[in-house]
């Protein structure tokens, strides 16, 4: 097949025809169906048609491809022009008019019969052609959807003036006409030309004579415009329905005319705009809605209350149920009132319903109210794109004050509130840098670490004020030749024995912050630490050191003394323990921290107890207490001590197990027996002593804490509470200690009695 | 004579192993007691059941439960009707089903019947369902075309109830 050159008009026309015939969009047109109709419409004799088909090659292929179709059309034009059908005539014949196709199709006939008759005077040689385009145009006027055919737009563009002309003559009768033919597509199409297209035709006719191309375009368009469009459009020309509604709703002729003019004016524009959304509101429609809105609510930014809207829409004679549904769809923010957008959407839905469209279940996107009313009052039809409404339900018009709070309206509020409310993360603020903070740290540490986290504190604080330590060192400290530091250790150990972490921690906390910040870890605690290497002390110290350095800020110097006294006994305790080569040492080493102070107190208590036991008066006890520490400090002869302790223990054992042991041993020489007894009783006594030491430790702790009490009182509430707690615990401990000491006193007294008895027994022998 | 019920609304949702019965019934508003027929209070504004078998039995259960609802409302007495009290909770359990109640400030009653075998439903879920119902009912009332006292024919309400029942079932 030789190449086919087509002019632009021909190209467009042919493509339109092809698309029209190509129903299935397969790019191949069967030789039957529309193609045949088309050829028949060409009003050519059948043999010519057959010839054409042969020439174009369709018969060979069995179908009409695009090229074949074009060739066929060209041949039709050739034939219609009277030229002989020859293959070469395709390109040789110049200035060939476009093939003409009489609308012989049934739909077209039915549709255009009336139009043909009415427009016969205008049609001239294009009788079959003219009506469809105007009909199409008419349809387009009322349509809100498809305008797929490009040539139509070109045709429309070619006829910009014609629509403008029509408004002049759109009579009030048009509503009636349209209403009558609301449901009759063909009627609608046919009647329309009577009114609107009336003047429309004349300019069109002029234009037709002006340019054949335009005519060709129009003629070419007669088949292509999708007939389905006509059907759909004819069914629902919104403008016609609008006008239908007019008598029902508004008796405003001017608006009708305005609408009609706007309709025709915008028709072309609509054709050029996107045509996918059947729910789009055209510009003239929107303008009409806006005008209607103004009649109810002059302020375009305001809203119409439900009752007024109800009255208005009831005029449309739709059933209440449908109006209710329309309301549900259009009242987007569910506040019982309609904004301009909502009103337009509702109106549009009413119009659509009037035209037979079923109401959608959901509001179409194009009808959703816009976020912000941009140009509802400004432009009339400047923006064809305005037709599409894209709104999000999140924001309601700010001017709207919802009568009933709706979910939609709460969204922006929530958003705003969430934006405004800054999430403030609680920033830990130190109340006062000193004691309180350390007390807090202590409290924290209380739960976590039952060892002596404070001991390093104490250790550290000891450096600062040794004198105060010494001063504050209480009884045992005085007994100890070691400085107050050791006494403070004992104090620390005592509370530790008790397990009263809170107490001594608190006391320590008061001091430690003060001391830890400025001074480096004092060397003194190291010896104790060295001994305590087997214990948790080192670890504790290390841990607490880190903690302190992290958290400590500044500490009043007043605090330090207290923990120091408690600290002081510690090393002292350790030292006596070391000095004491007895079992105590071995017993202490396996035992953990609580044990160490025990030993220190043990020895002290031994001194104390020994003083109590050996000497029935406290003077001796004191002496012993003094002696013992001295001995301990100087690494005393264990034998001496043993002797002393033996006596102590002997008596104790006599008290504890008076029956056998004491009796058995008393007649013997005192030194050996006491030794044995002491050894035995030592073991027995050790737990007792431990208890005693604990009690003494408690006492020491109490004494140690006492100096701190006045300090804590003056501090914060936490300090006071801590001190209260501490005091309560010391009270209980002291009470227990008291009861145990009472018991021991009883025992000791019994021993005394028994010894006196023995003495009595021995005396007669001595006399003899 | 045309009897018009009073203002309260009773909505009943019946859920039974995949069934839900939703009934909205008009309850009695004390203000209108004097002018209303005493026997025709609490007629339903909306009844829905899914699936729709033995509906009559559920309707009966709903209506009997209205008495319990009234009882609870009167028991509140002069207590301030706040959101918490709107939810009446389990009205009474029977061998097969549980009935939950909810009353709004305007004496609109919602009654939901749930099958006992549907153990997945917890109190919070029931509360949320009632909240949704209340919201949807509010939306229906916002519609100027809706006359209070009419049967609820709102499609949005229907769809909401359907989705709720489907979710439960």
In words, what does this structure look like?
The complex is a heterodimer of chains A (768) and B (169). Chain A has 768 residues and is mainly alpha-helical. Helix content of chain A is 67%, strand content 1%. In chain A, the strands form 2 sheets. Chain A has a two-stranded antiparallel ribbon. A two-stranded antiparallel ribbon of chain A has the order 3-4. Residues 104-274, 373-420, 447-515, 525-529, 546-557, 563-598, 615-634 and 636-681 of chain A have low confidence and may be disordered. In chain B, strands 1, 2, 3, 4, 5 and 6 form a 6-stranded mixed beta sheet that branches. The longest helix of chain B is centred in the middle third of the chain and has 22 residues, at 55-76. Chain B has helices spanning 30-33, 55-76, 83-86, 123-142, 155-168, and strands spanning 10-15, 20-25, 44-50, 87-93, 97-103, 109-115. With 169 residues, chain B is an alpha/beta fold. Classes of the chains: A mainly alpha (768), B alpha/beta (169). At the A-B interface, helix 19 and helix 20 of A face helix 4 and helix 5 of B.
Short description:
Chain A is an all-alpha fold and 768 residues long.
List the helices and strands and how they pair.
The complex is a heterodimer of chains A (768) and B (169).
Chain A: H1 8-21, E1 28-30, H2 34-41, H3 46-56, H4 58-61, E2 63-65, H5 66-81, H6 89-92, H7 106-123, H8 132-142, H9 150-158, H10 161-165, H11 173-180, H12 185-195, H13 197-210, H14 212-221, H15 227-235, H16 238-248, H17 253-272, H18 283-296, E3 304-305, H19 306-314, H20 320-330, E4 337-338, H21 340-354, H22 407-420, H23 435-448, H24 454-464, H25 466-472, H26 475-479, H27 484-498, H28 501-516, H29 525-531, H30 537-551, H31 563-567, H32 569-579, H33 583-588, H34 595-614, H35 618-633, H36 638-656, H37 658-665, H38 672-713, H39 717-767
Antiparallel strand pairs in A: 1-2, 3-4
Chain B: E1 10-15, E2 20-25, H1 30-33, E3 44-50, H2 55-76, H3 83-86, E4 87-93, E5 97-103, E6 109-115, H4 123-142, H5 155-168
Parallel strand pairs in B: 1-3, 1-6
Antiparallel strand pairs in B: 2-6, 4-5, 5-6
């Amino acid at each position: 097949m030789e190449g086919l050159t087509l002019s632009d008009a021909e190209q467009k026309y042919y493509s339109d025809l092809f698309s029209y015939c190509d129903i299935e969009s397969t790019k191949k047109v069967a030789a039957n169906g529309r193609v045949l109709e088309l050829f028949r419409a060409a009003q050519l004799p059948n043999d010519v048609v057959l010839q054409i088909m042969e020439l174009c090659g369709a018969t060979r292929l069995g179908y009409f491809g695009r090229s074949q179709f074009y060739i066929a059309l060209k041949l039709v034009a050739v034939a219609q022009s009277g030229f002989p059908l020859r293959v070469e005539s395709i390109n040789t014949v110049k200035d060939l008019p476009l093939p003409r196709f009489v609308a012989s199709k049934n739909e077209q006939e039915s549709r255009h019969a009336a139009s043909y008759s009415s427009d016969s005077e205008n049609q001239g040689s294009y009788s079959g052609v003219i009506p469809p385009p105007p009909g199409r145009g008419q349809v387009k006027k009322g349509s809100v959807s498809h305008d797929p055919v490009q040539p139509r737009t070109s045709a429309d563009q070619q006829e910009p003036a014609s629509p403008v002309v029509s408004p002049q003559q759109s009579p009030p009768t048009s509503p009636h006409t349209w209403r009558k033919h609301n449901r009759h597509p063909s009627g609608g199409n046919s009647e329309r030309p009577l009114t609107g297209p009336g003047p429309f035709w004349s300019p069109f006719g002029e234009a037709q004579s002006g340019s054949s191309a335009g005519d060709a375009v129009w003629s070419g368009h007669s088949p292509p415009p999708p007939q389905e469009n006509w059907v759909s459009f004819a069914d629902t020309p919104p403008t016609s329905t609008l006008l239908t509604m007019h008598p029902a709703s508004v008796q405003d002729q001017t608006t009708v005319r305005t609408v009609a003019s706007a309709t025709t004016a915008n028709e072309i524009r609509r054709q050029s705009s996107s045509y996918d959304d059947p729910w789009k509101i055209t510009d003239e429609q929107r303008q009409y809605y806006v005008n209607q809105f103004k009649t109810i609510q002059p302020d375009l930014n305001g809203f119409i209350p439900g009752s007024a809207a109800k009255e208005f829409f009831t005029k449309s004679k739709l059933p209440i149920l449908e109006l209710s549904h329309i309301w549900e769809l259009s009242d987007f923010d569910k506040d019982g009132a309609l904004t301009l957008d909502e009103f337009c959407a509702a109106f549009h839905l009413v119009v659509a319903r009037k035209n037979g469209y079923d109401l959608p279940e959901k509001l179409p996107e194009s009808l959703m109210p816009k976020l912000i009313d941009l140009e509802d009052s400004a432009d009339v039809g400047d923006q064809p794109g305005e037709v599409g409404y894209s709104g999000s339900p999140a924001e309601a018009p700010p001017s709207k004050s919802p009568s009933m709070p709706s979910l939609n309206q709460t969204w922006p509020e929530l958003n705003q509130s969430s934006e405004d409310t800054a999430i403030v993360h609680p920033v830990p603020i130190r109340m006062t840098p000193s004691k309180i903070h350390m007390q807090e740290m202590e409290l924290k540490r209380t739960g976590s670490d039952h060892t002596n986290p404070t001991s390093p504190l104490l250790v550290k604080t000891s450096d600062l004020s040794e004198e105060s330590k010494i001063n504050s060192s209480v009884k045992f400290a005085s007994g100890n030749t070691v400085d107050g530091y050791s006494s403070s250790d004992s104090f620390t150990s005592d509370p530790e024995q008790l397990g009263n972490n809170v107490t001594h921690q608190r006391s320590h906390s008061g001091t430690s912050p003060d001391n830890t910040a400025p001074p480096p870890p004092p060397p003194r605690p190291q010896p104790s630490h060295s001994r305590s290497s087997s214990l948790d002390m080192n670890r504790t110290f290390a841990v607490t050191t880190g903690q302190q350095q992290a958290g400590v800020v500044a500490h009043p110097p007043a605090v330090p003394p207290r923990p120091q006294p408690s600290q002081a006994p510690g090393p002292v305790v350790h030292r006596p323990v070391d000095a004491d080569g007895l079992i105590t040492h071995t017993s202490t080493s396996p035992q953990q921290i609580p044990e160490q102070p025990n030993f220190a107190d043990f020895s002290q208590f031994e001194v104390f107890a020994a003083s109590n036991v050996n000497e029935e008066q406290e003077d001796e006890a004191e002496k012993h207490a003094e002696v013992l520490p001295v001995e301990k400090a100087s690494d005393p002869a264990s034998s001496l001590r043993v002797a002393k302790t033996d006596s102590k223990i002997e008596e104790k054992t006599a008290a504890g197990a008076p029956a056998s042991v004491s009796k058995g041993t008393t007649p013997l020489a005192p030194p050996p027996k006491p030794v044995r007894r002491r050894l035995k009783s030592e073991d027995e006594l050790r737990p007792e002593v431990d208890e005693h030491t604990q009690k003494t430790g408690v006492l020491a702790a109490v004494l140690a804490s006492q100096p701190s009490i006045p300090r804590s009182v003056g501090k914060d509430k936490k300090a006071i509470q801590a001190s209260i707690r501490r005091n309560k615990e010391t009270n209980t401990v002291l009470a227990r200690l008291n009861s145990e000491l009472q018991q021991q006193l009883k025992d000791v007294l019994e021993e005394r009695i028994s010894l006196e008895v023995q003495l009595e027994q021995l005396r007669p022998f001595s006399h003899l | 004579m045309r009897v018009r019920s009073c203002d309260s609304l009773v909505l009943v949702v019946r859920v039974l192993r995949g069934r839900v019965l939703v009934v909205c019934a008009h309850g009695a508003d004390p203000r209108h007691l004097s002018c209303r027929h005493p026997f025709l209070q609490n007629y339903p504004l909306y009844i829905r059941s899914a699936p729709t078998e033995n509906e009559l039995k559920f309707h009966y259960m709903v209506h009997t439960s209205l008495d319990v609802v009234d009882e609870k409302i009167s028991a509140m007495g002069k207590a301030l009707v706040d959101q918490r009290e709107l939810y009446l909770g389990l009205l009474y359990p029977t061998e097969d089903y549980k009935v939950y109640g909810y009353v709004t400030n305007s004496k609109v009653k919602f009654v939901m019947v749930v099958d006992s075998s549907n153990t997945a439903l917890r109190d919070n879920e029931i509360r949320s369902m009632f909240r949704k119902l209340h919201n949807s009912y509010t939306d229906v009332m916002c519609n100027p075309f809706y006359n209070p006292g009419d049967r609820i024919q709102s499609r949005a309400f229907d769809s909401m109830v359907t989705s709720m029942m489907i979710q439960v079932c």
